[in-house]
Specification:
This protein has seven helices and three strands, in the order αααβααββαα. α1 packs antiparallel against α2. The longest helix is centred in the last third of the chain and has 19 residues. By secondary structure, the chain is of the alpha+beta class. Helix content is about 60%, strand content about 10%. A three-stranded antiparallel sheet has the order 1-3-2. β2 and β3 form a beta hairpin. It has a single domain, classed as Arc Repressor Mutant, subunit A (Orthogonal Bundle), CATH 1.10.10.
């Protein structure tokens, strides 16, 4: 378990959730993986503003926290696939609510 998650457990369950899914692009990664297994390049194309280093770091943290599973195939060039674990899939309602809230926020601020 990552140190930030362990520390959050000493504070509050909300902080645990923020520690696991908070951070650059994590919820967007999860949202895309809710559609099914994706390769690294596919994720990168779906999130064009994320750089490779950040995407790699966020995927590793999600993997370490048990949200994402990573499968490496022994091929050249390497083939790596990412998918959500059952714990990751349990985030679907949260992601859907956040997505709807974000859409409403965008609409409200487009009218200003």
């Amino acid at each position: 378990m990552r140190t930030p998650v362990r520390r959050a457990m000493e504070v509050c369950p909300v902080e645990v959730g923020v520690s696991v899914v908070g951070g650059a692009w994590k919820l967007t990664i999860i949202k895309n993986l809710l559609e099914g297994t994706l390769r690294f390049g596919e994720l990168g194309r779906l999130i064009p503003l994320v750089n490779r280093k950040t995407l790699t770091r966020q995927l590793r943290e999600l993997e370490e926290d048990g949200i994402v599973t990573r499968v490496v195939y022994p091929e050249v060039p390497p083939k790596v696939e990412y998918s959500l674990t059952s714990l990751g899939l349990s985030l679907a309602p949260l992601v859907q609510v956040m997505n709807a809230w974000g859409e409403a926020y965008e609409r409200q601020h487009q009218d200003l």
